[in-house]
Amino acid sequence: MAETVFTARALTKTYTSGETQVLALRNLDLEISAGEMVVLLGPSGSGKSTLLNIMGGLDHATSGQLFFRDQELTNLDDRGLTAYRRQHVGFVFQFYNLIPSLTAYENVALVTEISDHPMRPEEALALVGLEPRMHHFPAQLSGGEQQRVAIARAIAKRPDVLLCDEPTGALDSKTGIRVIEALLSINAQLGTTTLIITHNASIQDVADRVLFFADGQISRIHKSEVRRTAAELVW
Ligand SMILES: Nc1ncnc2c1ncn2[C@@H]1O[C@H](COP(=O)(O)OP(=O)(O)OP(=O)(O)O)[C@@H](O)[C@H]1O
C-alpha cells in the first residue's frame, strides 16, 4: 500500500477580521497517499485554498492536526514551516510569477541553484515539453507555455508534493489541456503527489480522487475507476 503523505485530523481554520469570524475549515479529516493525483472542487469560499495553503506550510491552522508523513506540521513555527516548504513542496498558482528579464532556463535555474538535489533546468523543462524554448523570455511564450515554465520551476527541486491553485484559471482550453498534460506526466514519471484546485469540473476526470468542498468541509469524495488522459478531456 502507498505511504500516507498527508493526514489531517479535525483541521480547523478561523479567520478573524475585526468582530467577524470566518470558519474557513471545519474539523476536516483527510488522508492523501503518495503519488496520488487529487482534484479539489467546490464553490468559491468553500475552503480549498485555505487547506492547500496550510498543507504547503504557507499558513497555520487554528486547531486540529496535520501531518506530513510522521512530521506534525501543526506543531511547527514559521522557521520550521519554511524548512518544510523548501524541502518538500512545489507550488503552482494561477499567475505564473516568472521574472520577465530572465529566460525560461534562467527562471528555473534560480531555484535549482538553491536546492539540495535538483534536476538540471533543461531536464525540468523537458518534462513539461519546453526544452526547445528554454532560451526564450516569458514575453516570447504563450500563457500556457509560461505556466509550464512555472511548473518546471516548481518541480526542479524534486518536491514530494506539488500543490496547484487554479493552474489553468487564466488559460483557454487548448493550452489548459497542455498544462494538465504536463502535470500528469510529472505525476507519472516522478511519482509526485499532486493536488489541483480548479473551477473547471472537467479536470476531475484525470484524478485518482476528487474532493468536493462545501462550507469548509469535504462533503463528498469520488474515487475514479479509470483516469482519463489530458487529451481525452472535454473542456
Ligand atoms: N486571509 C484571509 N482573511 C480573512 N478571511 C479569509 C482569508 N482567506 C480566506 N478567507 C475566507 O475563508 C473562506 C475560505 O476561503 P478559501 O480561499 O479557502 O476558499 P476557496 O474554496 O479556495 O475559494 P475560491 O475558489 O474562490 O478560491 C472564505 O470565506 C474566505 O473569504
> From the 3D coordinates, which CATH architecture would you assign?
3-Layer(aba) Sandwich
Small-molecule binders here are:
adenosine-5'-triphosphate
- Report strand order across the widest sheet: 6-7-8-3-9-10
Main pleated-sheet profile: 6 strands, mixed
Beta-strand portion reads: 25-35%
CATH topology: Rossmann fold
Percent range of helical residues: 25-40%
Low-confidence stretches: none
Q: Mean of the pLDDT scores?
A: 94
Shape: globular
Order of helices and strands: EEEHEEHEHHHEHEEE
Secondary structure class reads: alpha/beta
Overall structural domain count:
1
Any idea what the CATH superfamily is called?
Answer: P-loop containing nucleotide triphosphate hydrolases
The rounded Rg comes to 17 Å
Amino- and carboxy-terminal Cα gap: 33 Å
User: What is the name of the CATH class?
Assistant: Alpha Beta
**Number of H- or I-type helical stretches:** 6
Number of strands: 10
Q: Overview of this structure, please?
A:
With 235 residues, the protein is α/β, with parallel strands linked by helices. It contains six helices and ten strands, in the order βββαββαβαααβαβββ. The protein has a single domain (4-232), classed as Rossmann fold, CATH 3.40.50. The strands form two sheets. It has a six-stranded mixed sheet with strand order 6-7-8-3-9-10, sandwiched between helices. Strands 2-1-4-5 form a four-stranded antiparallel sheet, covered by helices on one side. The longest helix is centred in the C-terminal third of the chain and has 18 residues, at 173-190. The two termini are 33 Å apart. Residues 15, 17, 22, 24, 42, 44-50, 213 line the site of adenosine-5'-triphosphate.
